[in-house]
Specification:
Helix content is 30%, strand content 24%. The chain is α+β, with helices and mostly antiparallel strands. It has 5 domains: 4-87, Phosphorylase Kinase, domain 1, CATH 3.30.200; 92-307, Orthogonal Bundle (Transferase(Phosphotransferase), domain 1); 334-422, Trypsin Inhibitor V, Chain A (2-Layer Sandwich), CATH 3.30.10; 427-489, Trypsin Inhibitor V, Chain A (2-Layer Sandwich); 495-558, Trypsin Inhibitor V, Chain A, CATH 3.30.10. β2 and β3 form a beta hairpin. The protein is flat, with a radius of gyration of 37 Å. The relative contact order is 0.06.
Length: 587
């Protein structure tokens, strides 16, 4: 017999499972439609703060209606079951497409990215931050529509379960923004960073940062440089690579100001490709894409790409908009023609200059200063352009680390070599050590590029060895290799919770006391008809009481029932005549 929630939703089969919940296909008996029901896993139902966040955020998400967001119909609870009722998507997760297809054609990456960004833009305008944008949370319908899910619990998950009992980051660490990895303030630009990682994975078939453990990956988001997609796959348009790298800038201020700005950049790229041809953009498409220009109110021409279609779809403007746009067509056409002509002229000039140059080998600028490289380049009739500052533990700060083209490659006189400059070990963000144990600090700091400094102790109610404070503070930007001083608890004021021991054997009770940081005190024994021999029948402190760590707890242990007393009856001696004083004859 199938389970029915709220006397309305009939559950059928399990269709998915995540870290926090299980998803079932169900039928809404009231509206006679199939839905998906997400049920919170039992291990999270005891956390009231999490439950409240889960309910509040789900209700906020339910207020949003957008073609690229999975609709939420209902949020409820039945007994200990907390659930969300949402739109059932007949499709597959984007993560499945990436895993099976590998790198995707860049026009398809642009089209899907615009849809995801459109959903985020709508959510951000409704003051909802997703916080967990990743391919697993994007469903692709059979007609190619992208729909984001998990708006309802993403913020609740991040707020209540960002770290587990071992201080390991939980969730989508491959897609975390640097500020999320630091546990800092998260806003709309964090979603833009995560979407940039998704775009990177769609384009290359892999995530930019990976490692053996979540902490290592999170630190890479904070400190490591991202390998440009063009170095992993061929045919990546430079403009698209620029968009992705801008989304994934480690500093939020350098990213797109909003998801709408990102959409505009993708529209412009798609538009240029539709006008001058995908080949100009170094495309790696499959040849199955068709592109057309569709007017959009207030934004000029917008290129729209269809997949697996042999015909261009007609787009019909509403009558009122046609009249409004009619007077603008001539001006737009003039501007468009001028822009295309300018681009073609510049391209021809560059091509003619390249063709006319003399072939030479690119010199090796590595280890030089920028001035030294420019002096050499001038002698060889080439140019040097400064690229990026990169972290290096081999090349001193201020010297050239790498270049494009590489040394020895054939180039033309008049061409430009781009060089990257070392910033040494660079600065890094100090990780938060508060709450961690002293024994784990050296390895953790080494992975972050720092080292452990002075360790002092302080009286505290925290367990012995727990970090209470640090210097420099968490989040400070300091030079890599800096020593971090910490103050740890001596455990002198630490408290322990007394476990329930009655009814357990003495050895079991001693084990539980030890696990709680306590010990068994004086053990006395007494008879009992209620407890078997060897069982604890009394403890000094009530279960749940808070006492000082390392305290002892007196116990009384049963000796079993008291022995029964038996009465033995013996014959009384025969009475004798009392002895009388004086002579027997009475004289």
């Amino acid at each position: 017999m199938s389970k029915v929630l709220a006397n309305r939703y009939e559950l059928f089969e399990r269709v998915g499972e995540g870290g926090m919940s299980v998803v079932y296909k169900a039928k809404d008996r009231l509206l006679n439609r199939f839905v998906a029901i997400k049920i919170l896993k039992p291990e999270f139902i005891s956390d009231q703060k999490f439950i409240e966040s889960f309910r509040r955020e789900s209700q906020n998400a339910a207020s949003m209606s957008h073609p690229n967001i999975v609709n939420i119909y209902d949020v409820g609870r039945e007994g200990n079951i907390h659930y969300i009722v949402m739109e059932l998507i007949e499709g597959r997760a984007l993560s499945d497409y990436i895993r099976e297809q590998g790198p995707m054609a860049y026009p398809k990456v642009i089209a899907l990215s615009k849809q995801i960004a459109s959903a985020l833009a709508f959510a951000h305008k409704n003051h909802i931050i997703h916080r967990d944008v990743k391919p697993h949370n994007v469903m692709i319908t059979p007609n190619g529509t992208a729909k984001i899910t998990d708006f309802g619990i993403a913020k609740a998950v991040n707020a209540a379960t960002i770290v587990d009992n071992t201080d390991g980051i939980v969730g989508s660490v491959h897609y975390f923004s640097p500020e999320q990895a630091r546990g800092g303030y998260v806003d709309e630009k964090s979603d833009i960073y995560s979407l940039g990682i998704v775009m990177y994975e769609m384009l290359t078939g892999q995530v930019p940062f990976d490692g053996d453990n979540p902490v290592n990956i999170a630190l890479q988001h904070i400190n490591s440089e991202m390998t440009p997609p063009s170095q992993l796959v061929d045919g990546v348009p430079p403009a698209l690579e620029h968009i992705i790298m801008k989304c994934c800038d480690k500093y939020p201020v350098n990213r797109y100001a909003s998801a709408d700005d990102l959409i505009e950049a993708l529209n412009n790229l798609e538009f240029v490709g539709s006008v001058v041809g995908n080949s100009v953009l170094m495309g790696s498409g499959t040849g199955r894409e068709t592109t057309r220009i569709r007017p959009q109110k207030g934004k000029g021409p917008v290129a729209v790409t269809d997949y697996d279609s042999g015909e261009d779809e007609e787009y019909e403007e509403p009558e009122g908009r046609k009249k409004k746009e009619k007077n603008k067509k001539n001006n737009k056409r003039i501007i468009l023609i001028a822009a295309i002509a300018a681009a073609v002229i510049l391209a021809l000039i560059a091509v003619l200059h390249f063709i006319g140059g003399e072939e030479i080998e690119a010199p090796d600028f590595k280890g030089m200063t920028m001035q030294q490289a420019q002096d050499m380049a001038e002698q060889m009739d080439i140019k040097v352009k400064e690229g990026e500052e990169v972290i290096s533990d081999e090349v001193d700060k201020g010297l050239i680390v790498s270049q494009t083209p590489e040394p020895g490659q054939t180039i033309k006189t008049g061409s430009t070599v781009t060089v990257n400059i070392s910033k040494g070990l660079g600065d890094g963000s100090v990780p938060d050590l508060t709450g961690k144990m002293k024994d784990d600090l050296s390895e953790y700091l080494e992975a972050a590029g720092f080292k452990l400094g002075a360790v002092t102790t302080k009286s505290s109610d925290q367990p012995e060895g727990t970090v209470l404070s640090q210097n420099p503070k968490a989040g400070s930007e300091v030079e890599k290799g800096t020593a971090i001083d910490v103050v740890v608890s001596d455990g002198s004021k630490a408290k322990a919770t007394v476990p329930y021991l009655v009814g357990k054997s003495l050895s079991e009770a001693q084990g539980e006391l030890a696990a709680a940081g306590l010990s068994a005190g004086k053990v006395s024994y007494d008879y009992s008809s209620s407890y078997a021999e060897g069982e604890v029948m009394w403890q000094q402190y009530d279960a749940g009481a808070m006492v000082d760590k390392k305290s002892s707890v007196k116990l009384r242990v049963s000796k079993g029932p008291a022995p029964t007393t038996t009465t033995t009856t013996t014959a009384a001696p025969a009475p004798t005549e009392p002895e009388l004083d004086g002579p027997a004859d009475g004289n």
